[in-house]
Design a protein that fits this description.
By secondary structure, the protein is an alpha/beta fold. It contains ten helices and eight strands. The protein has one domain: Vaccinia Virus protein VP39 (Rossmann fold), CATH 3.40.50.150. 48% of the residues are buried.
Length: 276
């Protein structure tokens, strides 16, 4: 269900948190991956019991990432920052955009040590392009941008696509998620784009309250938001059609992930916008 900005206890000291569930590994389990431990599977199954469609939500989110990245590459964007990368699952963002334009440059950002272990899978880009990985905390946007700049991969005088997929529901109101997004965008030039997805309880409020309780009880605060609240992340930006919609309804393509599902089973808003 997404990758959280990992608490300080998980960062920088090699602690993989194998004794407690982690949202990135739970998300990997929802997607059918193998990079998870028994404690993650136990927590994930608890979520599945209260909301069996959570695996569909994860697949819809992944499919939206593929479509939105391809859309932006087709519109001429050649630079991407993916914050909250999570455990690599092919095709990764760089594989999608470099298939459109091999010269695309991608910087992945995460602060989870388990992602660092698998980072080599994020660095196998095309010879014409560049892919890089930096270790930084999404809740500290100045640190994120400083780390990205230090890589020397991106030209901040040219448009950049910022991807925040299934991340911000792990940022509580006290951590100022809107200011976080604003600080990331303010250093990007006009023509840059934001691609964002966010879980919601609009359609299945009781189930999502149970999910919030489960994640919070197991050490991961979760804040799902309404459509109006998610819309706020796009304030001042120009949304591409069809606007902010339930993720499986954003420019659907044949065989691009679950599509014939209810909005309640999707429970994920998504949109792509341009900075003018």
């Amino acid at each position: 269900m997404g990758e959280q900005p990992t608490p300080e206890r998980d960062g920088g000291d090699g602690d993989l948190g194998q004794d407690r569930p982690h949202s990135a590994r739970m998300y990997d389990y929802y997607l059918g991956g193998k990079t998870n431990y028994a404690v993650d599977r136990e927590a994930a199954r608890e979520v599945i019991r209260v909301f069996p469609a959570i695996e569909t939500v994860a697949r819809i989110n992944r499919a939206f990432m593929h479509r939105s990245a391809r859309f932006l590459a087709q519109r001429g964007i050649r630079q991407f920052i993916d914050v909250g990368t999570g455990i690599p699952t092919s095709p990764n963002l760089h594989e999608v955009v470099q298939e459109v334009a091999p010269e695309c440059r991608v910087v992945y950002v995460d602060n989870d040590p388990i992602v660092l272990i698998y980072a080599d899978e994020l660095l196998d880009g095309s010879p014409e392009g560049t892919t890089s990985y930096v270790h930084a905390d999404a809740r500290r946007p100045a640190d994120v941008l400083a780390a990205v700049r230090a890589e020397g991969v991106l030209d901040f005088d040219r448009p950049v696509a910022l991807s925040l997929h299934a991340l911000l529901h792990f940022v509580t109101d006290e951590q100022e998620p809107y200011a976080l997004v604003g600080r990331l965008l303010e250093q990007l030039p006009p023509g840059s784009c934001l691609s964002l997805s966010h879980c919601t309880g609009d359609f299945e409020p009781e189930a999502w309250q149970a999910i919030v309780d489960t994640y919070t009880r197991r050490g991961t605060p979760l804040r799902v938001r309404s459509k109006a609240e998610v819309q706020g992340f796009f304030d001042g930006l120009e949304l591409f059609g069809p606007g902010l919609v339930v993720a499986h309804r954003w420019r659907p393509e044949p065989a691009s992930g679950p599509s014939l599902v209810s909005d309640g089973h999707a429970s994920l808003y998504a949109g792509v916008a341009r900075k003018t």
